[in-house]
Structures are given as C-alpha cells and as structure tokens.
Design brief:
Layout lengths: L33 H11 L7 H67 L4 H24 L18
Length: 164
C-alpha cells in the first residue's frame, strides 16, 4: 500500500539515494582483481556519491543563496551609508546652531557692553573736567600764597634737620 514515492522526505532539497554501481564482469585471466587497485581510490570517495546533475543543482542553489546574501549585504551597506550621511548632516546642523547660539550670546554681551559705555562721559567731557581741575588747582594755589596760608601746607623735611 505504500508507494516508493510516498516515502518520508525532508522537503524539495532531499537527495534520493544513489544507485549502486554494477559489479565488474568476471574474467578468467589471472590478473589481480580490479578492486585491489581501486580500493584506495574508492576509500577516498564518500560512501554515497551523488550524480553530477544533482551536484550541479546543489551548486546552483548555493550560488543563488550566496548572491542573495551579497545583495542583502549591498543593501545594508547602502542603508548604512545613507544613515551616515544623515548623521553627518545632523551634526553639521547642530554645529551651525551652536555657532549661531554663540553668536547670539556674543551679540547680547556686546549690546550690554555698549549700553554701559554709552552712559560713560565722552572725550569732550573728560577734557573739560581736566581743564577745570587744572584751573582750579592754579587758582587755589595762588590764593594760598596771597593769603599767607603756607603754614597749612605740609612742610618739606630738610635733610639733616628735625622738624620742631
């Protein structure tokens, strides 16, 4: 009731068993049997050899799988390249905004400094103050000398004498 084609298989990639090779024809010669010379070669081959067309099919499947893996790798590499570009652009924008932030802080600081220096007297006021101070100093010194107020000024110590 069971058919040979209904046997258990593990899917479409299952390999059917290889047919056994036919035994060599028997000869009456006294030559050494061919098995004796072919034994080392046969022992090097696997116990179940596959036909060439199945090997080529298997090789084609492996190559196909390798090409799909290479395609996935290429897509991943392209995706990583795009991500790298986006990260670089974002970093450039962040640097630019930081520079703009620094410039804004510098502008604010310069405005504050300009406001403080605007409240300071200008050059004309400073020159006028210096001239008025010089004139008043001269006038006061003349007044002190005319009114004989020299004693209010500190006396110079002369060398070798003591003040009394």
């Amino acid at each position: 009731m069971t058919d040979a084609s209904q046997g258990t298989s593990s899917g479409p990639a299952a390999v059917p068993p290889a047919p056994r090779p036919a035994p060599p024809p028997f000869t009456t010669q006294t030559a050494p049997p061919p098995m004796a010379t072919a034994a080392p070669a046969a022992s090097a081959l696997p116990s179940h050899a596959l036909p060439a067309n199945q090997l080529f099919d298997q090789l084609a499947r492996i190559e196909d799988k390798c090409s799909r893996i290479e395609d996935k790798y290429a897509r991943s590499e392209a995706l990583l390249s795009r991500v790298e570009d986006k990260v670089e652009n974002a970093a450039n924008r962040m640097n630019e905004s930081a520079r703009q932030s620094d410039l804004a802080a510098l502008r604010t600081e310069m405005r504050g400094l300009a406001e403080r220096t605007r409240r300071l007297p200008g050059t004309g006021a400073l020159v006028l103050t210096a001239v008025i101070t010089a004139i008043l100093t001269v006038v006061l010194m003349v007044a002190v000398q005319r009114l004989n107020l020299d004693r209010l000024l500190p006396q110079r110590a002369t060398i070798g004498t003591t003040a009394q």
